[in-house]
Predict the 3D structure of the following.
Amino acid sequence: RSTLSSSSAASDVYKRQSNDLAYSQSKRNISDTTQTVDIELALAEKVETLLIEQSLYLKANLKVADIARELEVSEYRVSRILKNNLNARNFNQYVNQLRVTHAKNLLSDPDKKKWPVLVVGLESGFASVGPFTRTFKLLTGYTPNQYRTNIDKMN
């Protein structure tokens, strides 16, 4: 009997230690995950700051490698941040969305009414008029000229 009860007591101690270890590892995993999320959010803010506040999206031929180099992280991390934290399919889609928004502001500005579409595209970060017009139409449903005409009609 005493062997059985000491064996049962040893088994209880082992189970308690196993549970304590599992709980400790679980807490550490949660802490690691929280820390990773915090790092990713901070990196997302840096990406947004570079692209939006510092207007890097207006730089023609901007590549994900340029942002990665600036932040001293891998291109993969920048791409993952854009996808997971900034709701972008990819880098080009995110940058082009910012550029088209900028172009819409320029096309709507009465002081820039005389600007040719090419100039608006170049000022918005596109390298040439073809990709600008294609992207603009894809994202708005209108060519830049059609958009400008519709804005003029509404005013």
Q: What stands out?
A: The chain has a mean pLDDT of 86. The first helix runs from residue 2 to 53. The CA atoms of residues 114 and 123 lie 14 Å apart.
